[in-house]
Design goal:
396 residues, alpha/beta, seven-stranded mixed β-sheet, four-stranded antiparallel β-sheet, 15 helices, 13 strands, 14% strand
Length: 396
């Protein structure tokens, strides 16, 4: 594999993904700047009048986006933030002031605990407690059994680092009720709330309406450039705007992000249920292929061990686990893309919580993935595992 920089590896991956004729998902960040800008300029007139004046500090197209999302989620007010990290920290400190309790109950795998450098405590002065450490959202019983008071219960829907998992609808309703019985407010980390509709069998407004406030992202599932929205009661959102300015999030102009978010709402949001449905086809085919006899063997399975998690995906994203080093799997993945024009897996990461020599990949099924049949998936797995075996031998 050689001694190359991470930036060189990234450029290689991007080139391979872009050149692939078949892939399960294409991200907007995979395209060069010129293509991305040209696409935005061509598509934006379908969602906003470009003869209007440029937004300044949150008016114009940004205000339009806020109104649109508040209505979509059934809340009286919304505030646009440059990042979800900022939106969520602001929301939680606003609720801490209102409840008089700076303790936040959340999962130890939730985004603020894993991906924000301890900002809730270091920046926000908040304290966190964990109702459960199981790789799922907490149950109502665990909320009732928490051994100290908390002002806010934060639920990440879906819980990404546990495998994009969701509770059942009845479990979610019960957890929210249990928090309210403890005089706590409920905030949803809904970065990926958009794709939860299929699993819960409820419209967005009904799902979001369980919470006191909700944050949603525009770049994760809706293919936007960046940005997030915090929705909630008008008084809370107004206070959040004050904190947004204090945090440095009151940007002068944000029209590219706002326009791309509106495009995502128009184009990607209606298609998410089809992605979720096809992710289940892909996940089933992956499990069948990894467990089937490998080509050229006497009945030995393609992989000595594997895990597709959840076996039936709750959203259009799920995990795949294999017993190899991430470096081996990443090289096999990029070689498959370069040599066959097929991108099956994008990135593998060594397990932070599992044993050495086990890696995990996140699989996303988007519009490009709808073209894949189950047979396409099984064939791609066979080609991938041939490269894994060869790369693993050379790495030994």
């Amino acid at each position: 594999m050689g001694d190359i920089s991470e930036q060189d590896e990234r450029r290689r991956r991007l080139a391979a993904w872009k050149a692939s004729g078949r892939t399960l998902w294409r991200g907007s960040a995979d395209r060069p700047l010129g293509e991305r800008l040209a696409a935005l300029a061509a598509d934006a007139p379908s969602v906003h009048d470009l003869d209007e004046w440029t937004d300044v500090y949150g008016d114009g197209v940004v205000a339009e986006l806020e109104s649109r999302v508040a209505d979509l989620l059934g809340f009286p007010a919304a505030a646009f933030f440059p990042t979800g990290t900022m939106a969520q920290q602001v929301a939680l400190r606003c609720w801490a002031g209102r409840t008089g309790n700076a303790t936040v109950a959340l999962h130890p795998l939730a985004h603020p605990e894993v991906h924000e450098g301890g900002a809730l405590s270091v920046v926000g002065g908040l304290r966190t407690v964990h109702p459960t450490s199981a790789p799922r959202l907490p149950t109502a019983g665990e909320i009732h059994a928490a051994d100290e008071p908390f002002g806010t219960l934060m639920l990440e829907l879906p819980l990404r680092d546990a495998g994009f998992v969701l509770p059942t609808w009845d479990e979610l309703v019960a957890v929210v009720a249990a928090a309210r019985e403890r005089d706590a407010v409920v905030h949803f980390d809904g970065a990926r709330l958009w794709e939860c509709v299929t699993h819960f069998g409820r419209p967005l407004k009904e799902i979001a309406g369980l919470a006191d406030s909700v944050y949603v992202s525009f770049y994760k599932s809706l293919d936007g450039m960046s940005g997030a929205m915090l929705v909630g009661p008008a008084a809370v959102v107004e206070e959040a705007r004050v904190w947004r300015h204090r945090y440095g999030g009151q940007l002068f102009q944000q029209y590219p992000a706002a326009l791309s978010a509106l495009l995502g709402i128009e184009r990607e949001l209606p298609r998410l249920p089809s992605y979720v449905a096809h992710a289940r086809v892909v996940a089933t085919a992956l499990a069948e292929a990894f467990g089937a006899p490998a080509r050229g063997t006497a009945g030995e399975p393609a992989a000595p061990w594997f895990r597709v998690h959840p076996r039936t995906p709750h959203t259009h994203q799920f995990q795949v686990w294999l017993p190899y080093d991430a470096a081996v799997l990443n090289e096999a993945s990029v070689r498959q893309a370069e040599e066959t024009g097929v991108t099956l897996f994008r990135r593998w990461f060594d397990s932070g919580s599992g044993p050495p020599g086990v890696a995990v990949a996140e699989v996303t099924v988007g519009s490009a993935g709808l073209e894949w049949t189950a047979q396409d998936v099984r064939r791609a797995v066979g080609e991938f595992m041939e490269r894994v075996v060869a790369e693993n031998r050379s790495a030994d």
